Structure to design on (162 residues):
């Protein structure tokens, strides 16, 4: 046998209006709810008369933030990482998919990596390196031209010599 908890309803309980919220609609609970609504409306009316907007109570005003002086200098000369990257990209052989886009992304990431010390944000290094390595992985993928024979013929592996 399981014990059933009986709902204890406090009729007209002002602080939480327990009875009305639990579904009691007796005269005592109904009057308490009515009084609570009237008090709410009176409070709003006083606030409006005092010139206080409702939005000021719900959301604090957003503080003015000065623009950061720490920004990537896109017009700066190439740094050591970007310079090395450009020389290595010139030697890239093959045509990976989206090669031009990947080259731009690689240069972008290298420029950011070069300027991280001036920004004093060493926490960005790992993420930017990871992005650059991802671009390198994609640049390594070359596709054979349409109609060209593949460099590795797997059919020879499937034949057995007996």
């Amino acid at each position: 046998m399981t014990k059933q908890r009986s709902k204890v309803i406090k009729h007209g309980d002002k602080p939480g209006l327990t009875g009305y919220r639990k579904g009691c609609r007796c005269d005592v609970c109904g009057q308490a709810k009515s009084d609570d609504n009237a008090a709410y409306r009176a409070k709003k009316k006083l606030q409006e008369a005092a010139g206080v907007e409702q939005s000021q109570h719900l959301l604090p005003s957003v503080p003015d933030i000065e623009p950061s002086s720490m920004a990537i200098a896109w017009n700066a000369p190439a740094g050591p990482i970007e310079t090395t990257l450009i020389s290595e990209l010139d030697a890239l052989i093959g045509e990976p998919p989206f090669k031009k886009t990947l080259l731009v992304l690689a240069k972008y990431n290298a420029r950011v990596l070069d300027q991280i010390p001036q920004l004093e944000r060493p926490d960005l290094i790992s993420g930017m390196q990871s992005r650059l390595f991802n671009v390198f992985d994609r640049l390594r993928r070359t596709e054979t031209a349409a109609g060209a024979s593949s460099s590795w013929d797997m059919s020879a592996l499937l034949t057995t010599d007996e």
